[in-house]
Design a protein that fits this description.
Elements: E1 2-6, H1 16-20, E2 25-27, E3 34-36, H2 44-56, E4 62-66
Antiparallel strand pairs: 1-4, 2-3
The structure holds iron/sulfur cluster (SF4).
Iron/sulfur cluster (SF4) binds near residues 6, 12, 16 and 59.
Length: about 70
């Protein structure tokens, strides 16, 4: 299992995460910054998208923690 974290102060509203993993990330309607809609995705498909989004974020605002005991 993974836990996704977002540093909203670092986010520059580029939207790459929302395009890459739309079920996991959303953009705030007011300021465009990231909102983690699903911080612990249950499916491998969503987790794969989340990992890809973390790598693509231009401001390094996203990170992942592994949760011991999960899959
Ligand atoms: S990709 Fe990074 S900078 Fe862009 S909206 Fe997502 S968290 Fe913010």
């Amino acid at each position: 299992m993974i836990r996704i974290r977002a540093d909203r102060d670092a986010c520059v509203s580029a939207g790459m995460c929302v395009l890459t993993a739309p079920g996991v990330f959303e953009q705030d309607d007011d300021d465009g910054r990231v909102v983690v809609a699903d911080p612990a995705p249950a499916t491998e498909e969503l987790r794969r998208g989340a990992r890809e989004a973390v790598g693509l974020c231009p401001s390094r605002a996203l990170s992942l923690d592994r949760i011991p005991g999960g899959d």
